[in-house]
From TrEMBL:
PROSITE patterns: ABC_TRANSPORTER_1 (PS00211), ABC_TRANSPORTER_2 (PS50893)
Organism in which the protein naturally occurs: Haloferax elongans ATCC BAA-1513
Protein name per the record: Copper ABC transporter ATP-binding protein
GO molecular function: ATP binding; ATP hydrolysis activity
Similarity annotation: Belongs to the ABC transporter superfamily.
Lineage: superkingdom: Archaea
InterPro entries for this protein: AAA+_ATPase, ABC_transporter-like_ATP-bd, ABC_transporter-like_CS, P-loop_NTPase
Length: 303
């Protein structure tokens, strides 16, 4: 049974079709990146998955349940990070998570949750004084409560600095190792390809394509070079990277790792390997097309 199965799901607001006949399957254990520019229909889709918005037509199954018919069954099994809201300024992260754990009937250790997302120091400070990134880390911790089978995250990278993005990637890896399925939206392709197996491209309410993430890079990108900013690059990094069969050339210069891969399709795998090995990647500068260019190419190819 797929974890998410949407068939011709459509959402209309008057004359506006926010989501146009979405058909999509996500299988158990997958990490699926849902990409698209502003207004593409990503939040609408996620809100329908979470029963925060009702679809106009089509059928939907989340872990075998229709969220409209069995919202509680879905809520019990899904860790959600909706687009906004849900945090009270006077609460502390501890209050907030204690409430979330109680509501979920779970028994998570609050300190451990806060530690995982790197805000244990701020456990007892009011959320009102938090930065956007700290709030986002707390919202991620909230989604983890109860060890959900499925994580549905709307723009989880929003407001995160490079260190926050690294915490996010590590957390997603841990969740997947536990067996969770992950579905998350983003408009930052470079980040998405570090943590997902498949991507879906939304544009104008329509799902233009779904593809294996490396295949997607291969199709979109013709340039084998890329640059990565690395915090405190370990000694011998260039040599370590050059050892890979996928890498033709690597040099490190003032915190910047310049890479030429054997082919553009190798770029995502190389960066992923570095990230997983603990190299602190602060930023990616692929010389390939931006996501916007990739969207346009995809949209044009569809015509
Ligand atoms: N409540 C609403 N009433 C009317 N139109 C809406 C409503 N919610 C969304 N829309 C419209 O539906 C379309 C899709 O919006 P949606 O928020 O799903 O996009 P998105 O891909 O999540 O974009 P963003 O990255 O900006 O959040 C947009 O044209 C938006 O204006």
């Amino acid at each position: 049974m797929p974890v998410i199965e949407a068939k011709s799901v459509t959402k209309r607001y008057g004359d506006i079709t926010a989501l146009d006949s979405l058909t999509l399957r996500v299988e158990r254990g997958e990490s699926f990146g849902f990409l698209g520019p502003n207004g593409a229909g990503k939040s609408t889709t996620i809100n329908i998955f979470l029963d925060l918005v009702r679809r106009s037509s089509g059928s939907l199954s989340i872990l075998g349940y229709d969220p409209e018919e069995n919202p509680l069954e879905v809520r019990k099994r899904v860790g959600a990070l909706p687009e906004a809201g849900g945090l009270y300024p006077r609460d502390t992260p501890r209050d907030h998570l204690q409430f979330a754990v109680r509501m979920n009937g779970a028994d998570d250790d609050i300190d451990e949750l806060l530690d995982r997302v790197g805000i244990a120091d701020a456990a007892d400070r009011p959320i009102g004084g938090f930065s956007k990134g700290m709030r986002q880390r707390l919202r991620l911790a909230t989604a983890l409560v109860g060890q959900p089978e499925l994580l549905i995250l709307d723009e989880p990278l929003g407001g995160l600095d490079p260190a926050g993005a690294r915490v996010f990637r590590k957390t997603i890896r841990e969740e997947r190792a536990r067996g969770a399925t992950v579905f998350f939206s983003s408009h930052i392709m470079d980040q998405v390809e570090l943590i997902c197996d498949r991507v879906g491209i939304m544009h104008g309410g329509r799902l233009l394509l779904t593809d294996d993430v490396h295949e997607f890079r291969r199709r979109m990108d013709t340039v084998p070079q890329m640059k990565l900013s690395v915090e405190d690059p370990p000694k011998g990094l260039a040599e370590q990277v050059s050892d890979s069969d996928r890498v033709a050339q690597a040099t490190v210069d003032d915190g910047m790792l310049h890479l030429t891969c054997r082919s553009p399709a190798d770029k995502s795998a190389v960066v992923r390997q570095l990230d997983e090995s603990g190299v602190a990647i602060a930023d990616l500068h692929s010389r390939g097309p931006s996501l916007e260019q990739a969207f346009l190419r995809t949209a044009e190819a569809e015509r």
